[in-house]
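Assemble and predict.
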Amino acid sequence: MMSDFHTLHILNKTPDHPRFSECLGMSSSDDALLLTENGVLALTTSRVLGDRTVYALKSDLTARAIDTHQSNVGAIDYQGMVELSLKAKRVICW
Amino acid sequence: MSNTTEHSFSLVITGAPYSSQAPQTALAFAEAVIAAGHRIDRVFLYGDGVHLASALIAPPSDEMNLPKLWSEFLAEHNIPAVACIASALRRGLVNEQEQKRYELSASNLLPAFEIAGLGEWVESTIKSTKTLYFHAGD
């Protein structure tokens, strides 16, 4: 599940926040996106994320009753977040 | 993925407790770092994040007491935590030394934290494997 990537973008903003689209604009196809906090709300609106490698924090999904079973999103716990951040060459927290 | 080498993190919290999720997310992440056998070099509080170091926050007893939970975590794992002095003084977070200096009526810094400049922040970002920021979501 955890493929190779260059930069990990940790995004905690709602999809309507200016930083959200800024983040998507700055990330390339060899990057991974980790949605946390209200960032996971992006998964309720269709197809804003394109074909990126997307992960989301399980506890934030559960807190907001968002189901990712039908999608390609990797639901991870905080342990997974630690692993992703170590795997990345660079981490950007939006 | 098992980690055989030990890595270290610096965490910077800029979101305030209760008005943002930042301190809560940061704590869960920090616990996972320790559980994975890695280290946290230092925790920095900057901007509104300094409110986390206040000894005067008293949430209802059925809600998370984030300053208390963070204090216990820092003490248990012997992790240094620094509140930025420029952010702290502007937000009414002072230790006894600053209380005396500015002749204030009280001090309110939790013992797990110190108030200092952010020179160590620069040092930590060089030394740590990774630096993560925990910002407010709005």
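The mean pLDDT of chain B is 95.
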